Structures are given as C-alpha cells and as structure tokens.
Amino acid sequence: MTMPEALRHVYFLSDGTGITAETLGSTLLTQFPHGRFYRTTVPFISTIAKARSIVNEIDQMALRDEAPLVFSTAVDENIRNELAKCKGVLVDLIGAHVPVLEKALHTKASHQAGQAHGLGNALRYQSRMLAVEYAMEHDDGQSLRALEKAEVILIAPSRCGKTPSTMFLALQHGVYAANFPLVDEDFPGNTLPEPLRPYKTKCFGLTSNPMRLSQVRTERRPGSDYASLRQCGIELRSAERMYATHDIPHLNSASMSVEEISAVILERMGLRH
C-alpha cells in the first residue's frame, strides 16, 4: 500500500488572473493521487517588484521545507525571467511552448497578459454572458419561458449536480442550459413531466448513489426525510427508470467533478462550442 506523501506547498503564479495556471497545474497534480498539497494562487504579478517578492517567499519556504512546486503562466518575459530565479521546482506552462508556436506560425507572440480570460473575443464573451443569464433564469425549473432555446435540459432529483453543471456549461462553453428538478409527483406513471415532453431530445439525466446523495442533502436539511437514505434511494431508482423508459442519456455524477460532467454532456449531446 502506498503511503501518503508529506504536505507539499504548491504555487500557481500568473501576470493575469491565475485561472489558467491553477487549472493546468491542478490537472497535472491529479496524476499524483497520493500527494498532499497546500495550494497558493498569486495572480496579477505585473511588476518586477511583485515578482521578486513572491520569489523571496518561495525561497524562504524552500529553506524551511521541501522546495515548493511552482506552476507559472506569466507571459511577460521580464516577469517570467524573474520568477525563474526562485528555488522552487518551476513548471513554466507558457515559456516552454511559445517558441514552438512562434516558429510554426512564423510570427512573434504578443506577450500580453490576461488574454485567456479577458474580452479579447468580444462575441464569444457576450455569448457566454447571455448563456449564464439563461441558465440563471432557468435554474431548478424556475422559468419555462423560451425553453425551446435550450441546447440541453438537465433533469435529476434534487442535489445531483444540476445547477453547477448548467452554470459551468454556460460560463465556460456558452451553452444555453436549463435544468429541471424531478420530484415525487413526477414519478408515478413513469412519464416525463409535461413541460419537458416537447423537448425530450434535449434532456440529459443525472443520477448519483443513495449514500452520496444522502450526505449532500444532510448538509442542507439534517435529519429530514428528504435526506434519508431510503428517500434518496427511491428517487434515484425512479429517475433511472424514467431515463431508461424514454431513452434519455444520463450519467452518475456521484464521483465526478463539474468539469467531467460537463465534458460528458457536451460529447454525448453532440454540442461543440
């Protein structure tokens, strides 16, 4: 049996928001499931002075403990060169690849920070914001207005991950996603809720396992019938029968991240954004 590793400090550094450094760095760290990491994200390293300050912090940490892991997406060459002086184990997620692309594209990179998550592509940004507004309006069946505009409608018993999945699909991919809760009244007769019937081909089901769902619901309503293992089991079995009867694609979200859930939905529903 592999013993868990000692706690290792990890820094995600960027001259932008830090989102890309954290996402890519964290993805790499998933390959080391026994690792234990203390994570620090430092965004907007926009001056040499700030870069030197964080380098000093990393160096002090390296003197007291094992050298920290450092994931950087700094694009400014001066900032990147300064960060490279740290005594941490540096993984430069930009510098190693930009020269390759410059050669392939026969042009120099702009080396401007903040392009990944800014307004560089105004149309795409506007599309994502409109999708977010749509997802918020159509969260948990609050509105049935313009349901025909939905590209996907997530259906599931309460607390199976509908809301975070629709919000991620909207914000990250610009997908018009609605979600609709399945409750006890929907299960007798095993028919789709009436508002969904015209849009069956847009429906995608989520399920979970009873123990996990009970744990999640207990955090919200401890000691309630709603959170009981029995009630969770009944609702999940009923939902799965509904999915099977109406040939609705579905997945078990119990052990999946919102990123994984969204990727499966995009793939199985044939959505490309």
From TrEMBL:
<keyword id="KW-0547">Nucleotide-binding</keyword>
<keyword id="KW-0670">Pyruvate</keyword>
<dbReference type="GO" id="GO:0004674">
    <property type="term" value="F:protein serine/threonine kinase activity"/>
</dbReference>
<dbReference type="GO" id="GO:0043531">
    <property type="term" value="F:ADP binding"/>
</dbReference>
<dbReference type="GO" id="GO:0016776">
    <property type="term" value="F:phosphotransferase activity, phosphate group as acceptor"/>
</dbReference>
<feature type="binding site">
    <location>
        <begin position="156"/>
        <end position="163"/>
    </location>
    <ligand>
        <name>ADP</name>
    </ligand>
</feature>
<dbReference type="GO" id="GO:0005524">
    <property type="term" value="F:ATP binding"/>
</dbReference>
<dbReference type="InterPro" id="IPR005177">
    <property type="entry name" value="Kinase-pyrophosphorylase"/>
</dbReference>
<keyword id="KW-0723">Serine/threonine-protein kinase</keyword>
<keyword id="KW-0418">Kinase</keyword>
<protein>
    <recommendedName>
        <fullName>Putative phosphoenolpyruvate synthase regulatory protein</fullName>
        <ecNumber>2.7.11.33</ecNumber>
        <ecNumber>2.7.4.28</ecNumber>
    </recommendedName>
</protein>
<comment type="similarity">
    <text>Belongs to the pyruvate, phosphate/water dikinase regulatory protein family. PSRP subfamily.</text>
</comment>
<keyword id="KW-0808">Transferase</keyword>
<dbReference type="Pfam" id="PF03618">
    <property type="entry name" value="Kinase-PPPase"/>
</dbReference>
<comment type="function">
    <text>Bifunctional serine/threonine kinase and phosphorylase involved in the regulation of the phosphoenolpyruvate synthase (PEPS) by catalyzing its phosphorylation/dephosphorylation.</text>
</comment>
<dbReference type="InterPro" id="IPR026530">
    <property type="entry name" value="PSRP"/>
</dbReference>
